[in-house]
Amino acid sequence: MSTEVHPVDEVLPVPRLLALGLQHVLVMYAGAVAVPLIIGRALKLSPEDVAFLISADLFACGLATLVQCIGFPSVGIRLPVMMGVTFASVGPMLSMAASPDIGLLGIYGSVIAAGIFGIVAAPFISRLLPLFPPVVTGTIIMVIGISLMRVGINWAGGGLPTLTKVVDGVPGAFPNPAYGQLQGLGISAFVLLVILGLIRWGSGFVANVSVLLGIIAGAILASVLGVMHFEKIVAAPWGDIVIPFRFGIPQFHLVPIVTMCVVMIVVMIESLGMFLALGEMTGKTVDRDALSRGLRADGVGTLIGGIFNTFPYTSFSQNVGLVSVTGVRSRWVTITGGAIMLLLGLVPKLAALVEAVPLVVLGGAGLVMFGMVAATGARILTSVDFRNNRFNLFVVAISVGFGLIPLAAPGFFHNLPRDLQPLLESGILLCAVTAVILNAFFNGFGSSASAKADAAAIASSAQHV
């Protein structure tokens, strides 16, 4: 009987775990704190309450990550995954925040209900695995990477081109004066060059933490140029306690609950694609049982979010790209990252230090990582038979087109019912649904056996980056 430890389960030395875990935290931090900031401001909460939302979010991120990566009976996929609040929930929650009958407590009630729904629905969603042969999986993963490139490009530009501000009680969009400034673009380019240099000429541990070293180098340069500021770090307290139900007992309303359950379905289908991507990157078989455990952990994470005053959780695709770039497959790295997130939630001063890193610094790293996700999808597609089965070309071509609609034309579906927006605003979901339908139309529904054969074919041709 072999006693060889799979790279996913390998426990690395503590110094390496800390550095690699911090690297994952830096990559996801901006996305992790964005949603509580948006919802807190929409609800006109006090600065103290918004700060608490951020601490609660970081704390719950850590808990959800530990559940997903350590794993418990029937819960947790045990792959290198970092969990964070899904942006798919922002639109519905903003609508709930605008309703005086729902508000924050109604949001938390819908989040808790959606978490329970996710736990129950996980086995049914995992049964969709036979619908994801290489032509579907590769296409979805490629679109995940392409969709994330928008995030990386906007980071490099210094945020979003337009900012939402409330003027005289009316929200509106205004140009971001910091967007696309030459200084910020120069910092992003510097970070990119440092990372590429370390990947090209570094070796071993240095190459593995190339993204972290690039971000540190960029932060130092930003500090010298006066772009990185430390006032919030000085003002932040050293300790805080995340209290469950701090704002009161959650309220449960039917329509918000149904809406959030729909969001949960979107989240779980996106997670399914990311789990399959991680399976390819790490060489770990992701079968139906593994998918059930991973999707159930999404539900548990969302339930934790509702209890600890935060929002629905999902596997962060940003960190999938980091796994591809570094080639480090150990889930103990993300377990360490989860522990760091827990610590950041309890020590606001440390959280403020991480938050102080400018987005332009993260931009240079984002271009590398997110492009690698798209490249992984393209690599999977190399195992697809395009020569003898021309239908596969149409599956990829049309699915990519649908997946890019929200990216290329954000207002494309604005005349359709508002309740459908959570479904239509997700390019990953549009791509997944289109690819599954087209593959079934052209190639028929695959059996479990053929799906396993396809997975084996991909695994035999996969080369870890």
TrEMBL record:
Entry membrane topology: Multi-pass membrane protein
Gene Ontology CC annotation, any one: plasma membrane
Annotated GO MF terms: xanthine transmembrane transporter activity
TM segment ranges: 20-39, 51-73, 102-124, 131-153, 178-199, 211-230, 254-278, 332-351, 357-381, 393-412, 424-442
Superkingdom field: Bacteria
Record's subcellular location: Cell membrane
Entry keyword set: Cell membrane, Membrane, Transmembrane, Transmembrane helix, Transport
Key word Cell membrane present: yes
UniProt xrefs under Pfam families: Xan_ur_permease
Annotated NCBIfam families: ncs2, NCS2_1, pbuX
Family: Belongs to the nucleobase:cation symporter-2 (NCS2) (TC 2.A.40) family.
Protein name: Nucleobase:cation symporter-2, NCS2 family
Species per Swiss-Prot/TrEMBL record: Bradyrhizobium erythrophlei
Lineage start: Bacteria, Pseudomonadati, Pseudomonadota, Alphaproteobacteria, Hyphomicrobiales
